[in-house]
Every structure is written in structure tokens, then in C-alpha cells.
Amino acid sequence: MKRILAIGALIGICVISINAKAGDKTKCDPYKDYGCLDDYLGEDFGSRFLNYYKLEMDHAAAPADPNAPSSHREGWPVTPESTPPMPFTEWPHGATTPIGVTRPNSADSPFMAAISNTSSGKWLQDNHIQIYGWVNGGGNISSNSRQPGGNAPMAYMYTPNKLEFDQGVLYVERLPDTVQTDHVDWGFRLSGLYGENYRYTTAYGIASYQLLQKNNVNDYDFPMEYAEVYIPKVAEGLVIRAGRYISIPDIEAQLAPNNYMYSHSMAYSFDNYTNEGVVATLAATKQLTFQLGVVDGTEAAIWNVNKNVRNPFPNPLYPDSHFAKDPGAKPSIVACVRYDWNNGDDTIYPCMDGINDGVQGYNNLQWYGFTYYHKFSDQWHLAFEAYDLFQRKVANVNNPIAANAIANGGSPFSPQYMPFNAPSGAQCDNSTDLTCTANVFATVAYLNYQITPLDNISFRPEFYYDMQGQRTGVKTRYVNLGVGWQHWLSPQVEFRPEVDFDYSLNKDAFNGNSNAGIAPNRDYTVLGAMDVIVHF
């Protein structure tokens, strides 16, 4: 709570300072005369930092540098959206810097503006390295009452009736120049995240003790640590990325500014989050892109590949003297095809992610699905996603032999190894089966209406079918509806109020706590929530 109050106080001070008169700048308007930007910002770091927020207030973009090169390759499909008010400009596709539309130093950052007159800032600018990020906090009012965890399987605000610090994120990155076609370029991203949202980015073996051993409310993670190289003269361009990155598919993302709404769909909350490996993205033509890569599974640390631990309780489920620490940590395939038409107004993006033998791991999800985007007009667009995912040989919690093996340390996911937040078993149809395949079918859409350049309304309908209860802990169908408003004060400050209704069709799924052994006792959730994102 102290951290939340401190962040709230910091945001309040920033907003007050931004709206206060920060020196006499009336003689200079960088939106009319970009050349006076430095005069407007001032000399010292504090003045420049706050004056940059003040400058952008009530604007939908930073002042444009008339000498900046084009950020869009000639003949490339038109960039469909703008941010604000959307969370992206190009239709989202993962594991690559977008080809044909990326220039270095393109993040709009108050921090970078504040240090741009220093020797360090100039060195970073000259070497195309940027340091920036954001803080994000919010709260919810819910029909659930169980604390913590009563809103689950809703995620990213899983505890009802509470304020929380969701995420503070820092990026250090270099973007390759993918607009030009005359030389090889390179890039990287190093990221750090702290807050409640670390729960959803955790990979088994990467500081995962925070979630699996301690169940900390707030802690840290490093969701993106990668390098990449751009090679322009292979078809329309080739990007090769290596490291830990956000998984390829999905409309939504872990990072707050990359989402329409504060909450996330169940389709995203129980989905593939991060991969580690190498992915190649080839723009075969201006409209057609192929992706292919090899990774070590989903949410799996690469050093867990082929790592075995002693089995203290050999049993029919795991009969040998040792078992894999994480059976899902193994070479896996990711592959996607992206096709744009109608000059970029339509995009379809079928993918498969984390494909291997599918045996249950920490999160060894075999993902097959697609996203589709359609722009009706400058005001309306639709984002749609559908997928099927599964894991094979998931322990059957309805079988007494399998349940006994899990309880007594005879499974990699027993409480002796993962006292908190271990992956669930399956509620198989036949209690005599030791294991079964756990399947999920999900579909979600976002219908968006841009009211002004600083305002967007999103309507999110969702159907989520957890066929064996392995993802959410309850074997049921869910129908979820949400409406959210994204209101930007400027490109740096965004508020996202929303209202959600989530309903379990088959049995109670809400107001429980699986870590405390408390069963859910409600079949619905009605929730109002809002967060704020402040970029720096």
C-alpha cells in the first residue's frame, strides 16, 4: 500500500506540475516552430522533463520534426491506426520489429527529451539508443469479496475491491531502421518490470521463486531480453530475433500501453506469454510475411531443457527414479503467416506457437489460431481472435492414483516443488484414466470506435471454453462482456475506465482462492475498474 500511495503521489505531483505554469513559454510553440523546442523545454533536467509533459497536453502527437526522414517505406501498406488513442499504429504481430515502418529513436519519451541537451543524451541519440518506460496503477470495485484472488479467473486485477500497483516498466532499446533498404541494421531491447503483473509474465526458472515459492503480491520480471538484426536485401526484408520475447500471437499483451482496456480477456490471461529462442520474420512481399522459429517451449527457462530432478515418490504417473524438472522445456516450433490487403485495412495472421509433443509442462501450451483486423473507417475497426490450445498427458485430478502422486511429491508440479500457483491438473471425463488431453477453445473480439484523436471506446465480447478445467481450474464455459473507454490527456497520460460482466455457464467459478484451497461460490462477476498509465 505504501508503494501505491507513493506512485499516486508522484502522479499527482506530475499532473499538478504539468498544469502549473512552468516558466514563460508563451513566445514559443514547438507545434508551430519545431526549431524552438529546446528553448521551450529549458536547460535543467527537471524543467525539461515537466515542460515536455506540459507541451504535449491536449495534443494527440509530439511536435513533428520537419527534417525527420519518413517513417514509412514508399509503396508499403498504409499505417492503419494512431496512438493515441489506440494502443498501436500497425496491426499487432509478434517477435519482430515491424518491417518497412520503423525508424530509430522513434519512441516519444519525456525522459529522452529531458536529457537530449546533455552529453549522455546526445551520445544515446547518436547511437540510436533510448531509455523510457511507464508506471501503471489502478483499482476495481467487484461483486466478489474474497481477498486475495476472488476475481480469478479474471486476471490483471485478480483481487476484488482493491487498489494496486500493476506495473512499472523500464526499456533500454535500439530499434533497427527497417524503412531503408541499403544496409544491414541491428537492435535490441532490455526490459524490467515490477508490480502485480509479474504474476502473468513469469517463466519457470527465471526468478520464478517469487510466484511459485512465495506468492508475492508485487515483484519483478524481465519479460523481454533480445537482440535482432535486420537484413534488407532478402525479399522485402528479413528480421532475425534471438532471446526472450513476448509470444507471437494475440490481440493483447502483458505491457499496459499495448492493450485497449485495463482488464484482459480470459483468452489472453491463460495463453502463451513469453518464449525464448530464435525467430526469423521474412517480408516476402509488401503484403505477405512469414515467420518461423525454434524456442524452448512456453514460459520455460532455457537452462531447464533436459534438466532432471529425483523423484521421491515413483508412481504410475511418473514411475522412474527421476523426472524432468519442466517437461515442457524442449525444442519447439513457432510459425506464422501474415497477409495484408485493402491497402492495410485488413490483416489476417494465422499462427502456431510452442509446438512440440505437447506433454504437460509448466505451461507447455500447443497453440493454433489466428487474429484478424478490419478497419471500417477512420472511426471504426474490429480486432478478432480465435484459437484452440491443448496439453497432452495432463494428470487427472479425478483419478485417486494421480491425485495421490501429485500430493506426495511424485509430479514436477507437486506442492513440494511449487507450493503456490502450480499448473492445474485436468478434470478428465473418465476417472479411471491417469491422464487426458486438456483442451481450450477461445474467441474474443474488440469493436472500437474512435470518438476523438484522444478518445476510444472498446466493446469486448468473449467466449472461453475450458473443456477439462486445466487453465482456469473450473471445467466450464464462460461468456464475458466488457466496455472500456480509453481517454488520453496527451501521448504520455492515459486513463482507462471500464465495466465488465463475466459469467460461468456450468458451475461456480468466481470468488475462490485456489492457493488457499477455497472453492469458488459464484457463477458471475460484475466489475468496474480504472487505471492510469503515465509514460516517461
What does this structure look like?
The protein is mainly β. Helix content is 13%, strand content 37%. It is built from nine helices and 19 strands. The strands form two sheets. It has a 16-stranded antiparallel beta barrel. It has a two-stranded antiparallel sheet with strand order 9-10. The longest helix has 18 residues, at 2-19. The two termini are 23 Å apart. Residues 1-24 have low confidence and may be disordered.
* Strand tally: 19
Task: State the separation between the terminal residues, measured CA to CA.
Answer: 23 Å
Q: Going across the major beta sheet, what is the strand order?
A: 1-2-3-5-6-7-8-11-12-13-14-15-16-17-18-19
- Radius of gyration using CA atoms only: 24 Å
Taking pLDDT < 50 over at least 5 consecutive residues as the criterion, the unreliable ranges are: 1-24
Number of helices: 9
Largest sheet entry: 16 strands, antiparallel, barrel
Helix content: 10-25%
Shape: globular
Order of helices and strands: HHHHHEEEHHEEEHEEEEEEEEHEEEEE
Q: How large a portion of the residues is in β-strands, by DSSP E? A: 35-45%
Average pLDDT for all residues: 94
Class by alpha and beta content? mainly beta
